[in-house]
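User: You have something folded?
Assistant:
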Amino acid sequence: MFRSFFFVLLALCSQQLVHCSPHNNKISHSLHSGADDAKIVNVNIEHHEHGDFVRIGEYFNGGKECKGQRCIVRDNENVRTGLYFVVNFDRPLNKLPSDLTMNITLLEGHSLVPEKFKFKLPNKRKIFTAEVYCGITSKKIDASKIKTWKIELIDEKGDIIATLKNYMWPANM
């Protein structure tokens, strides 16, 4: 009897425990109520070296970067090595409005001062891709030192149309 009661209690509480997991670190918001609102569904943080972005086409077109089907934006376009936030949307990028800016705000190490990075998304976007590589290449950032982050997609009027933050982002910021 006690054993079955324990399993029932465990089953009921497991739903609450899932929300406390450190792996459930994303809180997604679409800030408008229309059906056409974009949502950021996932973010991966990856370190990439210069060679990760070199394609064979570069050797034939004078060294100009060939991005293929990827949308890659960097805070310093001349440097490819750095920390990249790979942001996935719920739809292809060409279905998003034009003149968009992506803001990434970080709290790093023991600092309580947020660092903000801005990325202008290109208006001409590939048809099938639904992800953006936002590269912080202007300074060296160790991914293991990032305490928390927030990503905002901003339209041409300055309105936030989608946001995603990890579970540790302070409520008062």
The radius of gyration is 19 Å. The longest strand covers residues 40-48.
